[in-house]
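Quick one before lunch.
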Amino acid sequence: MDKKILVAYATKYGATAEIAEKIGEVLCQAGLNSHVLPVNHVSDLSPYQAVVLGSAVYIGSWRKEASKFLRTHEGELAKRPVWLFSSGPTGEGDVEELAQGWHFPGPLQPIADRIQPRDIAVFHGAADPDKMNALEKWMLKNVKAPVGDFRDWDAISAWAAAIAQALHGKDQG
Ligand SMILES: Cc1cc2nc3c(=O)[nH]c(=O)nc-3n(C[C@H](O)[C@H](O)[C@H](O)COP(=O)(O)O)c2cc1C
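Model of the flavin mononucleotide complex:
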């Protein structure tokens, strides 16, 4: 009953951390005890009933620390309900179209297949030119990715609310 939900994230410039905070907030509002932590602050999953894990996407990959977390804790994650998300595509419009078919990092897909996450989401991201270095700005320009904050808080909140609902259903069942 009092078991906690872990919302673990990997970020470079903070956009994904704020998405994780929002997910944690929605879970708390739904009466769930959630802990929002950077992935590298988590070594033991035993206090957690369920895990939400998210990473920023850079050049089609998750942040190294998120990939490492998934690999290291695969066995423990497979025993719990898990939800995965990525924070990536910038620009207005449908996130799947912006992602151009990208759904999850290919090299991590076999691990995800074994963990069997309840869902894998991709959310619009935020790219702040004031935080990026010259190479990063050039790279985004090169792939014609707009800079700005495109995070869809309604989509993020709705996804988190669905997680809360699934976990409440699990308690009752
Ligand atoms: C150099 C660079 C490369 C990026 N590559 C991708 C990418 O391949 N796919 C994607 O969806 N977003 C990409 N993004 C956008 C970031 O994933 C997005 O801005 C994210 O929300 C940043 O999260 P963070 O602030 O937590 O690090 C890239 C951004 C930069 C600056």
